[in-house]
Amino acid sequence: MRIIDTKTLISPLAAAIEKALTNVENSADSLLRRAAQKETEPAAKWALSKLIENNEVAKSTCSFACQDTGLAVVFAEVGQDLRLEGRLLREAIDEGVKLGYGDARKSVAHPLTRLNTHTNTPAIVHTEIVEGDGLKLTYLAKGAGSENMSKIYMLTPSKGRKGIVDSVVDCVKSAGANPCPPVILGIGIGGTMEKAALLSKKALTRESGKPNDNKDIALLEEEILCAVNALGIGAQGLGGDTTALAAAVEVFPTHIGMLPVAVNVQCHSVRHATVIL
After folding, report:
1. Spatial distance between the Cα atoms of 17 and 274, rounded to a whole number of angstroms
2. What is the pTM of this model?
3. What are the average pLDDT values for consecutive 10-residue runs of the chain, which has 277 residues?
4. How far is CA 101 from CA 30, 127, 151, 266, in A?
């Protein structure tokens, strides 16, 4: 059995978060550049060029890619043959988040009193027991502008594939320019209400634009992306060809009487990182 003291994850996690906040994911940046090359609407083309320029400046000057540095969402995959010692895993993760956010905007507050914790903690931590003796932490910065536009649809099975696509289109249409499009969409299908929501969030940790390994689900991702881009909302709501850069779908078996669909909206400023111990 392998033994890890949880204090050993604090520094690597902090460093990963600090770097992620000033470096938009390379694949998301590539999708922006590809969209800018293909864009036919002048105003949207200009907006895309400014988003690309913003990413370049943030990276070269170690500035925050977006002023909303978001809530810290951490997916912790813990090997069943691993023994953790020292502080509770959640406490160690929170310490890493606190240090990693340093001078970044602190956005975590009590939901009723609205008093800020001033540390950007507690983080949102999802823990999963997996095979092996490793520890993998996947961090995602989630801003309010995009998260506020996310939705859950509890469909009946008869709605089928079309109902899934229509739900995602409805979500993006109602969001309009609020989540700073072009967006990336995480879509969870199946399970229960909370499982679908979790799947949709986890889908956003996938490399932007990377299709699902299952060919049929990958085709559904393409179908969703085409339908969303047909809305014509465009970059920053200025119209044009690219409302969404990518759609990532994750599925899970569900009850025969329901079809849960969760849509988690992510802005173009994709910031996540992985730490493996």
Report:
1. 9
2. 0.94
3. 95 97 94 95 95 94 93 97 96 98 95 97 97 97 96 97 98 96 98 98 96 97 98 95 97 98 96 96
4. 26, 21, 28, 20
